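cron nightly-structures :: item 1 of 1
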Amino acid sequence: MRSAPGETQPTARLLSAGGRWGVPAAAAVASTVVFVLVRGQLIDDAFITCSYAKNLAFHGHWGLIEQGTANTATSPLNVFALATLTVVLRDTVLAAGVLFVVCQVLFVLALRRLGEHADLPAWFAPLATGLLLVNPLLLSSVGLEVVLGAAGVAWLLVFSVERRPVAFGVAVGLLAMIRLDLLLLAAVVFFARRTFWEGIWRSLFAALAVALPWFTFSWVVLGSAVPDTLIIKTLQRSWGPWSFANGPLVYWRHFPEATVLSFLPVLLAGVGGVLWLVALRRGSDAARRLTPFAALAAAGGLHYAAYGWLTVPPYHWYYGPGIICATIFVSAGIALVGEHYRVGATAALVLTAAAALGAYLVPGAPPITTNHATSAQYEAIGKQVAVIAAGRTVHSAGEIGALAYYCGCPIVDQFSDRGTVEPEIEASKDRAGDVGKAFIDANFRFFDQSVAPMTADLILGETAGTPPPNALAVWLISSPWTGRQRLFLVNA
């Protein structure tokens, strides 16, 4: 880069570096502000991950509670990252915030590389990052592996378009450790390339080198290569008439504004995909440049279809990968349209983003939640349960993450007590076909069937009416999903 007349070389380098790192710095500041807003509203499943990370960091133990080994952490890499930060910061929730910020920076850096490769305007990366940063559904998933997966998918696409087979394989291996279902996205991105087979063996061996050690350890030592949550969640099937396929409708009934804002990028991606196909058939150069992003959007659609086929419950963070892929595609499409439409479309998206962020500024619970209590209520209850239980084992009332994190006592259910998993395995085999049974048998080849369920001394329960008269303690809890209830503790 040449200096302007009268400008020194150091000054030119400083200006260049400032322009280069301005966007990542802005992403770091914005995501820090967002985490400060959401820190007190993390959902219960986020605390399951935090509990795993805290136990790993402080006790070198893999489990939701310190008193027993479990394998219900859906994202091993998220646990490892949080545990590493916790060793330094000594606070796992703060570690979740630092990881959130780092992932946002990695994400915007990847999008900038993609934008440069496709010759998109420089504002493409901050636009996509900003839209995802304020998406109500994704904001309601902070603390889980959603943002880590977004960063991984973005870099996967970078290495795909840059034809770097080893780096691509490393990204695939890391995605497998973030969430196994993200391999569906990797497969679509891989096969969507021209001459996709070039470097395939280098990619395969790189992916195995990254992921195989953990999955081998998990298979032999923890008793299952795939986390037990695959069995637990698929057995749940649905919430009455609501499964993953029609789940957005139940969220629309409970949280209409937040749901519309969350899934708007998916609807826009559907329309944009049709327009992209028409333009591509006409030989449009802009459509050709958009092809990698369109492949990513198609991968998000396949992810949705796969989860619908599995008939799992509509946990809101399951929709994260599809929304992320759609948002990246829509942002790239906006960056390619003519200047006249671009200004109007961008203004509309900015207003949408402002409305989405505004939904999170309302005090209380996240804009989308299926928990029965707020994290603040669970924090207070967990600390009181620790005093009452005095080391005795407590059976959960269905939500265990925040209570286990703040209580530090043995709270048990199928997510923390490995002894309760064997009946789930047998029930899953009864419902599976021959191929499914073979997979289950192979996955649990080293499962220790001698582990007995832990005996609970105390039981947590919920009621919308009057708690039992022998309750040791009663707490009022509330959420937009279930309304006002009472959580109570009784002797087993």
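cron nightly-structures :: done
Residues 9-38 form the longest helix (30 residues).
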